[in-house]
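Fill-in record for Phage tail protein.
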Amino acid sequence: MPFPLELWLVHPDPAVCETLLARFTGLPHVSVQTCRFENLPPHDCFVTAANSFGMMTAGIDAAVVAFHGERLMKRVQDRILDEYLGEQPIGTALVVETGTPGYPFVVHAPTMRVPGSIEGTDKIYAATFAALTAIYRHNVTSAQKITTVAFPAMGAGFGGVEKSEAGRQMAAAYRNFLEPPHRFDWDMVARRQKQICYDGDRQVVRG
């Protein structure tokens, strides 16, 4: 079983926070922080809805770099060069130390190769699940555990995904993180695929 986490959904607009939170109904330890990134209280880890090249120069990524310093972007890019030969695939995530007291880690989890629309894809799910599993692996091996994780509305900025759909995919990833399968069969695969691709009976992710 994964280590327990406290998830914060972060956005300055209260209506957006409520839209995101509504998608997590029934899932434990989820709350909202109605503020900008730079006004967040201390937390263990912030997840960036990033691009594959670690270019953290716009949107919330730029706020993260302004808060932690340019050294953070260099650490992210050095890891991408070393571990992914210069291009981090969507569906992977890096836990990166910040060196900032009270805010020790950032997870770099690309939702897109380069900035642009990801509407109609499952890339928010893939990035969110990658972030959660990277945190799980970190907690297995590291003495400094991550327990409080802050997420923005993944893919809802440059990615152009509607806020409720972003929240739906993020919640699906969190649910699957909390409820991993104990065996594999095609019924399980089909259930998970439908959960990711459908909002109720309406297909919202293109096959």
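KEY FINDING: Residues 123-141 form the longest helix (19 residues).
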